[in-house]
Design goal:
This protein has about 325 residues and is α/β, with parallel strands linked by helices. The protein has nine helices and 19 strands.
């Protein structure tokens, strides 16, 4: 089974997604250390509300002299609301495609933040020109581009797609982008079309959601693979003198449970090395938590936020005790569900 995947940058503009036949959408979020796609969140949220599978990507500008730490931090800061909902992707097609170590470092940093393995997007020629063994051996999935021609393909007909990419280092590809001139009823203009080699459950596993199907360990409320929000955490699982660290003092207040240790006061290890927590520290699942609140950004209005979450500004004002809907401030947390 496979999924039909579109990817969208700013030149696609405001897409009429409800009129287009597709299964998954991968949206461009950021580029380098300064650019944010102005259409990203709008397209992401539309696809999310329709139940589509989602990814979000960053276009590397390493040839500009940017370090991977800076570009990874920029991507994470501008996409943190998508953690647990989308596959993160590094778009690798800048002028300097030889710096494999740069790409690997970016992938590693984003993996720690997202709690799942990002993918690498690049072309067949770039994959085969350099030694990508370190990236492939670290189990980062490959999304590979290879076009037979520039003749438009209509409504997911791959009869003219040509042979799939033949790549080194990876035994299998996660996705093949087979055309940049796809034409689909309901959209004017060209679309990048890809095929994902798996079903919806396989897509969820790339996000990390598939691990939630693992059985509960006897006696515990949570399981390995759950992405949880915590109020406090601990440096040690066993030390009775280990002081509680408030989430407000941490870089983030969430993590994926990677280990459960029986017979200790703090049995859940988050993100392999972040910290240890117990049942009393866990506030809930990350996805559920993020869907219940929204942090106001510069330029937001209550009406814009309401449209984003399919409600009215009057309802949001009532839920949040806001007397004057015209007065909200940057950084304010708004309950949306």
């Amino acid at each position: 089974m496979s999924l039909r995947v579109l990817d969208a940058a700013s030149h696609q503009g405001n897409m009429a997604q409800e009129n287009i036949d597709f299964d998954a959408l991968i949206v461009k979020a950021t580029e380098g250390c300064t650019y944010v796609n102005p259409y990203c969140d709008r397209e992401f949220q539309k696809a999310f509300r329709q139940g589509k599978k989602l990814g979000v990507y960053h276009f590397a500008r390493n040839a500009n002299g940017n370090i991977p730490e800076a570009e990874a931090a920029f991507f994470i800061e501008n996409t943190k609301g998508y953690i647990g909902k989308a596959i993160p992707v590094l778009d690798w097609e800048d002028k300097d495609t030889s710096n494999v170590a740069w790409a690997l470092k970016w992938l590693q940093i984003v993996e720690r933040a997202y709690g799942c393995k990002p993918m690498l997007y690049t072309s067949e020629s770039v994959v085969n020109r350099y030694d990508w063994s370190a990236v492939a051996n670290a189990d980062y999935g490959l999304w590979c581009a290879k076009y037979r021609d520039n003749i438009p393909d209509y409504n997911w007909d791959m009869a003219g797609a040509g042979p799939a990419p033949s790549v080194k280092y990876w035994k299998t590809m996660a996705l093949w982008q087979w055309t940049s001139v796809g034409r689909i009823d309901g959209h004017e203009g060209n679309l990048d079309c890809s095929i994902f080699y798996g079903d919806a459950a396989a897509w969820d596993k790339y996000i990390g959601l598939g691990n939630i199907n693992k059985p509960l360990v006897s006696g515990f409320k949570h399981r390995v693979g759950e992405h949880v929000v915590f109020s406090t955490c601990y440096a040690s699982s066993t030390d009775p003198n280990s002081k509680a660290i408030p989430a407000s003092q941490m870089e983030k207040n969430h993590g994926v449970i990677t280990k459960i240790q029986s017979g200790v006061r703090n049995p859940y290890l988050l993100d392999k090395e972040l910290c240890w927590v117990n049942d009393g520290d866990i506030r809930g699942l990350y996805q559920e938590y993020t869907e219940q609140s929204y942090v106001v950004k510069s330029g937001d209005t209550l009406s814009k936020i309401a449209v984003k979450y399919g409600t009215t500004y009057q309802q949001l004002a009532k839920m949040n005790g806001i007397k004057n809907p015209d007065k909200i401030y940057t950084g304010q947390k708004i309950r949306v569900k």
